[in-house]
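Researcher: We're teaching a course module on how sequence relates to structure. For the next exercise, students receive a sequence and then see the predicted structure as tokens, so they can try to spot secondary structure elements on their own. Here is the exercise chain.
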Amino acid sequence: MNESDYNELREIAWRRTLTAAEDAAVRAWLAAHPESRPDWEIEGRLTEALGRLPDAPVPNNFTARVLREIERETVAAGRPRTSRPWFLRSLVPRLALATVISGAGLFLYHEHTVAKRAELLHGVQVVAGVSSLPGPDILQDFDTIRQISSTPGPDPELLALMK
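Model: And here is the predicted structure for the students to work with:
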């Protein structure tokens, strides 16, 4: 006898008393496997205790209620689990993702704009703090100055005058 035969006889013992041949097979198994004996004895005592319990009263409509519940579960298994339309199942997650990405983009753009304004404000404060800035009349000779600086090398006439 193997372990599956032993387990099958154990289950039979839960429902009815074993025949002499079945009982002999179980005794042979327990002799060969003494580690199974405590479990067999506990299950035997439990089966005897359950056999002494009185039968519970069953309501008159028990069978009808059981069959109705089986039918309800069968119908529920055939229906889809969710009652939301397909477009809500597919569009809502995408719309949520697009909203999160758009919000993050707007936040980053706002932070970039604030940083640029802060940099501009800092530049204006630095320029405003300088007390000796030339006036706009310095730019009236700008074309002449630009022509002078575009000549290559030093001006020999100017160098002769400086000596």
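Model: If you want an answer key for the exercise: Residues 3-78 form one domain. The mean pLDDT is 86.
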